[in-house]
Amino acid sequence: MTVLFPFLDASRTDARVCSALAAVIGSHRAFDLRFVSCGRFPGVLYLAPEPDGQLRRLTEVIAERWPEAPPYGGQFTEIVPHLTVADGQDDAVLDEIEAGLLGSLPFASRVAAVDLMVHDGVAWRERASFALRE
């Protein structure tokens, strides 16, 4: 699950930013999510988390702390928590993937941490992990 994208450039995610992220994220409790249905954006298939209020709140507080990193780059006003399953595919492919997923739903997951991922030009890598309160 993505909490906030895009975030700060990797060159700006220094020890001070990581300390502030730890404080912001650590002030929130761990929580459970269920995935019971799929959703779509144009060319994108995703799993919809329920409930999604705590994910929305995490996005809001991180974006409030770093206003230069608005959710979705400021392109969309509504925060839609989602777990992307497929991106950049035509509808027929997304339909096929969704049909295969529906038999595996619902499932649940515990969210106990938020990872800071950075792109090194080739792949996404974990820079740090920040625990939520239990």
How does this model look, in words?
There is one protein chain. The chain is of the alpha+beta class and 134 residues long. Strand 5 (113-119) and strand 6 (124-131) form a beta hairpin. The protein has one domain (10-131): Alpha-Beta Complex (Cyclic Phosphodiesterase, Chain: A). It has helices at residues 15-26, 53-65, 91-102, and strands at residues 31-41, 44-50, 83-87, 107-111, 113-119, 124-131. The strands form two sheets. Strands 3-2-1-4 form a four-stranded antiparallel beta sheet. A two-stranded antiparallel sheet has the order 5-6. It is globular and about 45 Å long. The longest helix is centred in the middle third of the chain and has 13 residues, at 53-65. The chain has three helices and six strands, in the order H-E-E-H-E-H-E-E-E.
Topology of this protein?
Layout: H1 15-26, E1 31-41, E2 44-50, H2 53-65, E3 83-87, H3 91-102, E4 107-111, E5 113-119, E6 124-131
Antiparallel strand pairs: 1-2, 1-4, 2-3, 5-6
List keywords for this structure.
134 residues; single chain; Cyclic Phosphodiesterase, Chain: A; alpha+beta; 3 helices; 28% helix; 32% strand
From the alpha carbons, calculate the radius of gyration and give it in angstroms.
Answer: 16 Å
State the low-pLDDT regions, or none: none
Distance between the first and last residues' Cα: 19 Å
Which band does the percent of strand residues land in?
25-35%
Number of strands: 6
CATH architecture: Alpha-Beta Complex
What string, H for helix and E for strand, traces the elements in order?
A: HEEHEHEEE
Query: Structural class given helices, strands, pairing?
Result: alpha+beta
The shape, in one word, is globular
Largest sheet: number of strands, sense, barrel closure: 4 strands, antiparallel
Question: Helix tally?
Answer: 3
**CATH homologous superfamily designation:** Cyclic phosphodiesterase
The strands making up the biggest β-sheet line up spatially as 3-2-1-4
CATH fold field value: Cyclic Phosphodiesterase, Chain: A
Mean residue pLDDT: 95
Number of domains: 1
Helix content: 25-40%
Please report the first level of CATH classification, the CATH class: Alpha Beta
